[in-house]
Every structure is written in C-alpha cells, then in structure tokens.
Amino acid sequence: MRLDELDTPALVVDLALMEANIARLMGRLRPSGVRVRPHLKTAKCPEVARLLAAAGASGFCVAKLGEAEALAEAGVDDLLITTEIAGAPKLRRLAALHARHPRVRCVLDSLEGARMLDAALAGADAPLEVLIELDVGQRRCGVAPGEPARALAAEVARLPRLRLVGLQGYEGHLQHVADPEERGRRVDEAMGLLVSTAELLRADGHAIETVTTGGTGTCERCAAHPGVTEVQPGSFVFLDRAYRDALGPDAGYANALTVLATVISRPAPGRAVIDAGLKALSTDMGNAEPVGLPGVRYRPGGDEHGILEWDGDAPAGLAVGERVALIPGHIDTTVNLFDVYHVHRGGELLAAWPIVARGKSP
C-alpha cells in the first residue's frame, strides 16, 4: 500500500526523517555524557520509544499517570511522570502501577503531596523513587530553589515509603524563545538555580542522583552545565511548525510528521476546503502550514473542515480529490487527536503504529 491510498485525514510519519532527527539529537548530546530521557507526551507510542531506546535513550518521561499506565503495559516502564499526582483516585492507581512496575518514578513539590504519596503506598514492597520539582522560572509547578527546596527535602527524607533520588527543573517557558542569545542567557540562569540547589541538598546528605531538565529547544544548552545529569526533549522526534520557527534552519531537524488531508470543495477562486479541521489539527500554537504550497494559508473552518486560502499572486490549483499535507502548529496536541501513525519510507507504507497513550488525560 502506498501513501496516496490512505484515507484522510491521516497522521503520517516519514520514517527516514524521524530516524535522522533522532540520530542528530543523540549525536549532539552524546559527547556531554548527559543521559537523554525523551518525553513521550509527544509521541505516546511504544514503537517510537523502542526506536529511541535503540538509539541510546535511558528511559522516558510522560506527563500523565494515564500515559504511564498505557506505556508500561506495552513494555515501556522506565518512566518518570513529570507532573505532580494528587487526589485519591490517582493515588490508588499510582500505588497499583508501582506494584507492577517499580521503575516508574514521579515528582512532587509540596509536603502535603509527599505525605499523600507516602500514605497511598502503605504495604508496598519497595519505596517509590521521587524527584522534587523546582520552579526555575516557569511559574507553574515547583517549590522555590534554595532553602524552600532544602526544607522540603528534609521532610521527604523522613517518609518511609518514598526515596528521594533527584530534582526536576523544567524551563518550559524558554523552549520557543526565538533569540538564541536571550534563550541561552535565560537557560543559564535557570540551570544555575537547579544545579546549586542539587549541591545544597547533597551537602545535607541527600543522594541526589538525577538532575533532570531541558526540552527540544534548550536541551543542548542545559547539557553543557556541569551538574545536569539528564535532559527530557520530546518534540525533536517529529518537530512542528512552532519549534521549527523558533529554532531556525540551523537546528537541523526536519518536520517528520504531517497530517494528510483531501480537498473536498473548491467553492470560490482562491479558496479550497479540506477534510481536516479542529478534530485533526490543533491550533493552540498557531495554525498548520500546507507543505509545498507557497502563498497558501490554512485556517480551521470548523470541527471537520479546514480552509485553504490563496494570497493574491499565489498560483491556483488543487482540484477536488487532490491531497494536501500539513505541518501541525503543535505536535503534542495534534497527535492526541489520532489513534494511529501511518509510517512510510519514500511513500511506501510500512506500518500502522497505535498511539496507545492518546487521550490519557486522567
């Protein structure tokens, strides 16, 4: 079966481009000696995880407990859940997951949260490994660096069913800073807070083995800081329009994933309608970009419809029934709309990879 035989809308992966993206990032980070723990909140797929592991990944990250459950059951269970877990239903699920897959770790940023985790693990055969999350500037989750983190670490160390193994300090607010100098300067400031807090906790006797940080836009700069042991890039596997625009052409990553759509209507000159709307392409980081159609812009036209509009001097074209490939504005939220990747090499379809962790919001 060839690519042009797929029904649409379809999520399509160019395997050669994806493999090149993986090889490029791993090759760039290998000299640093820093471990790469890719974030699977992007791909949500065991087959992608296995390719990453073969390339040298040392475990994986997920954002949600549901993602961890789905991937662990598929055999990918060296996982760090990078979002705090609270509430009785999730705590029961985490305890059950820990019993089956003890390599799953999670983060915390409060004494209340730590005590809830500890209580949920009553009767566990082994302690749960945890990392304290620091706020290194994102102003989302995280305890403040320095003394507040030090005080929290002292309390966590007293809880019998938790074992403190590291710190997480994610500078997500810097991933798409377009100016490389500004991005680098601000990353350096964030890493200073993270590494100095790790040193403070080690001086108190805590075995801080892991200092984890960094996304696709910052991981190389993060890895250059002594004291950082691990980075968490995820979007580099496929890339999207937002990261491509922020990182620029010198980054060397290709857009390996597109959404394939079909023209279903040509109601007026300079306008075409395709079968990919809000249910096929997320818009939280801007609209998708048509591939190979200069002067043609995409916007959603509703749940099921997408609108292509021509600039005044753009060449016409695209008859009803023709195909259009689009680069998503944001890969993570677009992937979450689909059940399967259609994987090809040179237009020849090779496989359909289930996206087992899609929709795992709880």
How many β-strand runs?
Answer: 17
Radius of gyration: 22 Å
| Number of discrete helical segments | 10
Coarse structural class: alpha/beta
Largest sheet: 9 strands, mixed
Mean pLDDT: 96
Give the overall form.
Answer: elongated
Distance between the termini: 36 Å
- Low-confidence stretches at least 5 residues in length (pLDDT < 50)? none
The helical percent reads 25-40%
Order of helices and strands: EHEHEHEHEHEHEHEHEHEEEEEEHEE
- Strand composition percent: 15-25%
Account of the 3D structure:
With 362 residues, the protein is of the alpha/beta class. 30% of the residues lie in helices and 23% in strands. It is built from 10 helices and 17 strands. Strands 1, 10, 11, 12, 13, 14, 15, 16 and 17 form a 9-stranded mixed sheet that branches. It has an 8-stranded parallel sheet with strand order 2-9-8-7-6-5-4-3. Strand 16 and strand 17 form a beta hairpin. The longest helix has 24 residues. 45% of the residues are buried.
Task: Spell out the key features of this protein.
362 residues; alpha/beta; eight-stranded parallel beta sheet; 10 helices; 17 strands; 23% strand; elongated
